[in-house]
Amino acid sequence: MRKQLITFVALVAIPALSFAQTADEVITKHVAALGGADKIAAIKTLEYEQTMSIQGMDLTSKSTFIVGKSMRSDISVMGQQITNVIDGDKGWMINPMMGGNTPQDMPAEALKSIKSATEPPMFQLAYAKSDKIPYELAGKEKFDGKDVFTIKTTRPEGTFNYYVDASSYQLLGFKGTVSMGGQQGETTAKFSDYKAVDGVNIPYSSEITAPGAPGTITAKLTKVSVNGTVDQTIFAKPK
After folding, report:
1. Which domain of life is it from (predicted)?
2. Where are the domains of the chain?
């Protein structure tokens, strides 16, 4: 009986170990598809500009990252500018659409996502290992008509499924459940049109939904700068 029990445990453990190893393998191949671990690790700053559209309304935005430390996003819409900034363990924002041009401290709930907010969204799965984010292979399925591996992660701001193309190992999108205002909401993204910039493959087209957004945001990158000089004073909260 003892021998049979050991054999049974061994048979159960083998698939489990293979499953975990496969998750590592998928992420390793995904990182290679982006340009390689060394290239990703070498990205210290990233800036990109993009055009955006939501429910027929056109917007432009600029995002600036000091990877793992600071992030600033400026969105221009209807002659107004919405600014969101993370700097270290703090954050602030200006949103004329919600009552004024005075900088406001970012709500504590929003600050849960500080680490991932300071990492470009198209690279978040590539940073999972170094950020010590728990992950597992949730299976293989269809996403936007393509076969994908689904990697499930548990991040401070919520649970996310990342969809990795089973052929190219590029990230095709993600779906996450996040908390906002004490309620659960879903955020999604689709990525396409990958182009090489300084040896790193970056998706130039995206579709994003987020809690509170009135519809799907479609975006196209118009300018990308990797490891350019960033004026760090842009992250300081105006007095």
Report:
1. Bacteria
2. 2-235
Fold exhibited by the domain 2-235: outer membrane lipoprotein receptor (LolB), chain A (2.50.20)
- Which burial class, exposed, middle or buried, applies to 166 when counting CB atoms under 10 A from its CB (0-12, 13-18, 19+)? middle
Query: Along the 239 residues of the chain, how does pLDDT read in single tens digits?
Result: 444 433 333 334 444 433 444 899 999 999 999 999 999 999 999 999 999 999 889 999 999 999 999 999 999 988 899 999 999 889 999 998 877 789 999 887 777 777 788 999 899 999 998 889 999 999 999 999 999 999 999 988 889 999 999 999 999 999 998 876 666 789 999 999 999 999 999 999 999 998 877 889 999 999 999 999 999 999 999 98
pTM strictly above 0.90: no
